[in-house]
Amino acid sequence: MAGAPILAVERLRKTYTRGWLRRQPTFTLEADFVVPGPATIGVMGPNGSGKTTLFELITGSNHPTAGRVLCCGRDVHRVKARERDRLAIHYHQSYQVRRFRWRRPDLLLERAGSDYPVVHLFDEPQFNTQDGYIGFMLEFFRRLRGEGRVVFICLHPTERYHLDILREACERFLFVHQGRLTHVPDFPTLLADPRVREYLGHLAE
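Below the sequence we write its predicted structure tokens.
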């Protein structure tokens, strides 16, 4: 829809539970933010903090407990399952697209209204340090943003060059911790957060 932000995550909540007779919450992710225009956003956080769940909710492959995700004004979870990757697409590790099953008939759902993804979510992508591969991927991220896309790059840094990639590629950041999102305007502010420094360990030195 004209004039709508590229991505609006509105009062989104996903709660996982266990038990049969008495359902007990085991984990809850909460998110509420807007990305009005093209951007490259870095995402970090400990394992199990909710990063992949957030990506799955944005692409519509996971159903929220509450709230909604709007991509270019369209509710992702009301778009035909086979067309959702025309709005938001989730690449996992070796750049394979995450697939999902959806039980609600597509006949009851809306068209995507887009032929090419506008939100690209890279979930712990692998970077080959040889033959200029990192430079190639950085240029790819820049090109997507230059074409008016939103790019999320989620890394679990194990080497210093992972931090260099985030610093060079991303203009703002999300730190996900125990199901809560902290919005960070730049890389120095990110590294100044004590939780981030604890998470990174010696890499933050």
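The helical segments are 51-59, 133-146, 160-169, 187-192, 194-200.
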